[in-house]
Specification:
Elements lengths: L8 E4 L6 E4 L5 E3 L15 H23 L8 E10 L5 E10 L5 H14 L1 H6 L4 E6 L3
Helix pairs in contact: 1-2
Length: 140
């Protein structure tokens, strides 16, 4: 693979209760453990960041698929929910649910775009076979 862009970030402090900053300073966040995991719930967390990245990346993949097929997605959106829990082997695992909304297209056409986007999205390709990812397309 020829790399066309590399993002860099540094985590300092206590990991989930620390701080993250991108090398260019665009991302500069305090982190906090969610209340559900025994923390204060104050600050962002890795699952939020993963959900935001996956939603944006998948939405871009859908836009690319739509352009290639000369379809307009109109006022589309992608919501991502990222869950974390014990994996049964002493560690933790993630789950992802993507909710696709393309109000201006019939459900079958929106589903076809989402299915194709799932094949080209870098996040989908990175998680395939490693993380349970479900996709639902809202009815038109």
């Amino acid at each position: 693979m020829t790399t066309i862009y590399t993002a860099e970030a540094l985590s300092t402090g206590a990991g989930r209760d620390g701080h993250v900053r991108s090398s260019d300073g665009t991302l500069d966040l305090d982190l906090g453990v969610p209340k559900e995991m025994g923390g204060s719930g104050v600050g962002a967390n890795p699952e939020m960041l993963f959900a935001a990245g996956y939603a944006a990346c998948f939405h871009s993949a859908m836009q690319g698929v739509a352009r290639a097929t000369r379809v307009s997605l109109g006022d589309s959106s992608v919501g991502a929910s990222v869950g974390i829990g014990p994996n049964g082997d002493g560690g933790y695992a993630l789950t992802v649910h993507l909710e696709i909304v393309i109000p201006d297209l019939p459900h079958d056409q929106a589903q076809a775009i989402a299915d194709r986007a799932h094949q080209v999205c870098p996040y989908s390709n990175a998680t395939r076979g490693n993380i349970q990812v479900t996709i639902s397309v809202a009815d038109d």
